[in-house]
């Protein structure tokens, strides 16, 4: 499969087309991950974070930061597996995951390891 990148969601999204069956990976508040049996979309891999992530990183609690770290690990692994740049991250919508979402917290540079 030739994926173009990753779509990031959060469960606080109010968009009508935001359905659980659309997500490839759900990262729960406790840091556990629910994966779909197979990747569901031909162009993008969809990752959803449980909760409201329309916050600056400094305002997030331990659990939210752990969820972001889990998302980073998933992104870097799938980037290697499917030869996608881990920098190709896109929001689901203008309001999902929100204008305050800490995109830099998801970036892990493959050549330099974890940030």
UniProtKB/TrEMBL annotation:
Record protein name field: Uncharacterized protein
Any GO MF annotation of the entry: N-acetylmuramoyl-L-alanine amidase activity
InterPro entries cross-referenced by the UniProt entry: Amidase/PGRP_sf (IPR036505)
A biological process term (GO) from this entry: peptidoglycan catabolic process
Domain of life assignment: Bacteria
């Amino acid at each position: 499969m030739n994926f173009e990148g990753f779509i990031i969601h959060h469960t606080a999204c109010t968009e009508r087309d935001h359905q659980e069956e659309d997500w490839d990976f759900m990262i729960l508040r406790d840091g556990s991950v629910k994966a779909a049996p197979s990747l569901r979309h031909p162009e993008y891999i969809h990752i959803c974070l449980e909760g409201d992530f329309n916050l600056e990183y400094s305002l997030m609690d331990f659990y939210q930061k752990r969820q972001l770290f889990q998302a980073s690990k998933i992104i870097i692994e799938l980037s290697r597996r499917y030869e996608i740049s881990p920098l190709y991250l896109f929001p689901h919508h203008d309001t999902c995951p929100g204008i305050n979402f800490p995109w830099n917290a998801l970036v892990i540079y493959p050549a330099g390891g974890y940030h």
